[in-house]
Amino acid sequence: MPFKKTLPKTPLGFIAIILLGMYQVALAQPGQKPVYGDAIITGSIGDASNLIPMLSSDATSHEIAGLIYNGLVKYDKDLNLVGDLADSWTIENDGKTITFHLKHGVKWQDGQPFTSADVLFGYKTIIDPKTPTAYAGDFLEVEKAEAPDPYTFRVTYKEPFAPALSSWGDIVVLPRHLLQGKDITKSPLSRHPVGLGPYRLKLWKTQERIELVANNDYFDGRPYLNGYIMRIIPDPATMFMELKAGGLDWMSLSPIQYQRQTDTPFFKKNFKKYKYLSFSYTYLGYNLNHPFFKDKRVRQAISYAIDKEEIIRGVLLGLGVEATGPYKPDAWFYNPNVKRYPYDPRRAKKLLADSGWRDTDGDGILDKDGIPFSFTVLTNQGNPLRDKTAQIIQYRLGQIGIKMDIRQLEWTAFINDFIDKRRFEAVILGWTLGQDPDIYDIWHSSKTGPKQLNFIGYKNPEVDRLLVLGRRTFDREKRRQIYFKIQEILAEDQPYTFLYVPMALPIIHARFHGIKPAPAGISYNFIRWWVPKNEQKYMMP
Amino acid sequence: MDFLIWTTKRALALIPTFIGITLISFFVMHLAPGEPMSLQADFNPKMTPEMRQRLRAQYGLDKPIYVQYAKWFKGLMQLDLGRSFSPDRRKVWDKIKERLPVTILINVLSMALIIIVSIPLGVRAAVRQNSLFDQVTTVLVFVAYAAPAFWVALLLMLYFGIELNWLPVSGLHTLMGYEQMDTWHKVLDWGRHLVLPVFVSAIGGLAGFSRYTRSSMLEVLRQDFITTARAKGLPERTVIYRHALRNALLPLITILGLSIPGLIGGSVIFESIFAIPGVGQLMWSSVMARDYPVLMGNLVIVSVLTLLGNLLADLGYAVVDPRIRTGLREEE
C-alpha cells in the first residue's frame, strides 16, 4: 500500500493519494453517453425493519430509505453540506436561526406537492414523545420551527448549534398528507413508503428481497438504472458464492476476499473492486477509573507497545490505515500533526518504569505494590477482526511484561452487564463516524452517566470547553482549528489507543459505469450509474 | 366410550402443562441481560434518557414482570399475540404467519425424504445384520450425521451451483422473469431451488431414523411370531414387510409425533445459508433483539404442537396396538 509509512501532511494530499491508489478509477469513456435501463442487484446480511427512517436504526433500513426519501440538505462527494430539497439557506441571529428556501415543483411519489408543511410535520413528529425514535436528540435543541410560506422553513435554536444544519436530512421529511392524525407506529408507510426520492418501492418480501424502481418524476433527474434490488443473504459465504454465480452485482468484501479470493481471471474480467476509508475506527479503550489506567504514562506506554502497522497487516491484510484520533484521515477536520505512538517497546518499558511498574519478583510480569499488571480486555462476539486484533495486542503487551486476557461477550450482555455497569478494565470496540466533527456525546465529561457514551470516564476541562465551542461555531476554518486542538489533547492523553480505520471494500459488476470513489464513498452518485445498451442484463420497466 | 373419556382427560391435562410452559418461559426470557430497545438505543449518541424511559413505558417494561405476564396472557386468551417490539411494530401473528408456508413446505418435504429413504435402509440393514451393506450404511449415515450442516451445504452449493452450474445457489425462486413463467415452470423453478435445502435439512434426520428403524426391526425379527410366520412357509418378503415391519413401526410413531413441532421450528443454520426466509431466522433475530412478544408467540405455537404431538402419538399407539387399548380398560 502506497500510504503506509508516508502519511502526507495535509488531508487534501491524502485524498489525492487514495484516489491514485484506487484499484480502478472509473474513467470517462469518450464517445459513450449514459443510457437508461438495467438493474443492479446487491446483497445485505440483514433485512430492513421499518422504512419510515426516523423509526428505524439499522443500516439496511437507512440504505433503502435513503433512495426513497430526501432531506433538505445532503453531503456531496467531498463531504460538504449542499442543498437537496432546499435550494439555499441563510443563517442569522448569531447562528441561532436557519431559514431554508425549498425547491419548487417537487412532488411526493403519489403526486401530492411537497411543501414546507411536510418538514414542519416531520419535525413535530420526531419531537413527539409518542414517536419511538432514536433521533430526537438534535431536534430537542430547537426552540421554534415555522413554515411561513409553502417554500420557506425556518428554525430557531436556543443556542447556536453547528451540527443543526446537517440534522435536516432525510430523517425528518415526511408526507404530512398521509400521516397527519394517525399513529405513526401503525402506519402502512413503514412497509409501503411514499417518498420524494429517485426510487420507489415496488416489492418487499420479508427477509428475502426489496425491489425498487426508478421514479420517473424525480426532481433531480430520473436515475439511469431502472431498478435496485437488495437480496437478503444472511451468510457472507453464500453471498460470495452468489456473486460468483452471477446472482449479485454488488457486495462488500472482507479483506481476505478482496486480497486473495477475488484475484482470479474470472473476477478481473467481470468485476471491479474499489476501496476507500470507511466511516469508522477501532480502538482499545481504558476504564479511566481503574487504578492501572488512571496514569497517562501507562496508557501512553501501551500505545507505544502496540505495533499498529502489524495489526493492519495481519488483521486487515493492509486494507486500512493507522488511526491517530477519533476521525478518519481524509476528513477536512482531521489533524495529521498530532503526537504519534510508533512501535517502541523500550520507550513503553521506560514509561511504565517511571510510573512505578517494575518486575520485582522476576516472574516476567510487571508489578507495583505487589499487584501484578494483569487485566482483561472485553470485546464483542462474532467480530473476527476485533478478536485477531486482541490477540496481536496480547502478544505485544506480553513482551513488555503486561498480562492481558481476552474475553468475548454477546453484544447485549456486553453492553448491559459490563459497559453500563462499568465492570471492565479495557475494551476493544469501534465507533462509526458521522460526517460532522461533533463528538460531544463521546468525550464530554457530562456524558459519563449510566447508558451514556463516555463510558471510559474521560474528563478533561479543556476538551469540554472546546467541544461546546465546536458546537457553537459555524465558520468552517474556526471549527477546524477547534477540532484540531481536541485531537492534539486526545493524542496526548491517550484515553483510547486509537488503532485503525478499516477500508470499505465494495466489488461491483464491470458493466456499471460512472462510479467515482470519493471521501464520501461511492454511493453518493448512485443515480448517475449506468450500463451501456449492449451490456444490459436485466429488463425492468 | 372409555376411549373417549381417556382422550378428553389426557387433553385436559395438557392445559396446566401449557400454562406452566408459558409462565416459566416468560420469566426466564426476562432474565437475559438487555432489553428490547437495546439494539436501537445502546451506543446510539442521539438517544436521550427520556426517550429510553418512554420506550420502556410504551413496551410496558416499566411494570412489574407479573403484570406484564398477566397482560400477555389476557391477550393470549383472546388469541392476540400482541405486537413485535422491533421497530416495525407489526403484529406477531403476521410476522410468524408470513414465514410459516415455506418453513412447513421444506420440513414436510425433508420429513418425507427421511421416511422414504431411511425406512427401507433400516429394514435392509436389520435383515442383513452385520453384512457389508449394514456396515457401509452405518458408517455413511454417521458420517453424514456428524458432518456440520453448514459445511455440507457450502460444499454442495460450490459444486452444484458454481462448478456445474446446475442448481441455484440460494433463494426460493429466480429473481428476474419469475412473474412471467407459467405454473409448470414456476413449480419447476421452486423445485430446483429446494433440492439443496431439503437435502441438507434431511441429512441429519436420515441417520437417526434409519437407526431407529434398524434396531426396532431387529427386536421384532427375534420374536416368536416371525419364526411362526416363516415356519408357515410365507415368502420372506411377506414376513418382513407384512408382519415384521408393521410391528417395528410402532415406536416410530412416537418419534413422528414428536417431530410435529419441528415442522414449524425451522433451522437457523440452513435457513441462513440458503437465504430462506423461514421461522428459524425470525426466532434467532428475535432472541438477539430480545423481542419478547415474537419469542412468546412462537413458543406458544411450538408448545401447543408439541403437546398435541404427544397426545397424537399416544392416540396413535392406542389405535394401532390393540394391547394398549385393552390395557386401558383393565387399568380402570
- Unreliable stretches covering 5 or more consecutive residues of chain B: none
| Proper CATH architecture of the largest domain in chain A | Roll
What's the CATH C level of the largest domain in chain A?
Alpha Beta
- Compute the CA-based radius of gyration of chain A: 25 Å
Helix content of chain A: 25-40%
What count of helical segments of chain B does DSSP give? Answer: 16
- Kindly report the greatest chain-chain contact and the residue count on each side: A-B, 55 and 54 residues
Structural shape of chain B: globular
Q: How many distinct domains of chain A?
A: 3
Biggest sheet descriptor of chain A: 7 strands, mixed
Compute the separation of the termini of chain B in Å: 13 Å
> Which word captures the global form of chain A?
globular
Indicate the structural class of chain A. Answer: alpha+beta
CATH domain fold name of the largest domain in chain A: Dipeptide-binding Protein, domain 3
Average pLDDT confidence of chain B is: 84
Q: Which sheet architecture does the biggest sheet of chain B show?
A: none
Number of strands of chain B: 0
Quick recap of the structure?
The complex is a heterodimer of chains A (541) and B (332). Chain A is α+β, with helices and mostly antiparallel strands and 541 residues long.
